[in-house]
Amino acid sequence: MQSGAGCNFISLLAFSSVALATLAGAQTLKQRPPSPATAQIAPRTSVAAQVPAEPVLPQGTSMQVEITRHYPMKSGEAIEGRLLHPIYVQGKLAVPENTLLHGEVVSLQPDRKARWHARLMGDFTPFHKPQVRFDELMLPGEPLPISAATAVNGAPVLHLTAPGVTPKKSFFARHWAEAKSQFHNRMAYFTAPGKGDRALQLLYHQLPYHPERIEAHTAWSFELTAPLTVPDPPQAAPAVAAAAPTSSNPETWAVHALLTGDLTSATARPGDPVRALVVEPVFDREKQLVVPQGATLIGKVASAKAARSFGRNGKLRFTFQQVRFPEGYDRQVQGSLAGAATEKTQNLSLDAEGTISPRKQSSAIAPLLLTMLAGRALDTDGNMTAQAGVASNGFGILGRIVGVAAGDRNLAAGIGFYAAGLSFYENFLCSGRDVVFPKDTRIEIQTTPLRAPVLKPEGQ
Question: Taking residues 208-237, what's their average pLDDT?
Answer without folding.
Answer: 83
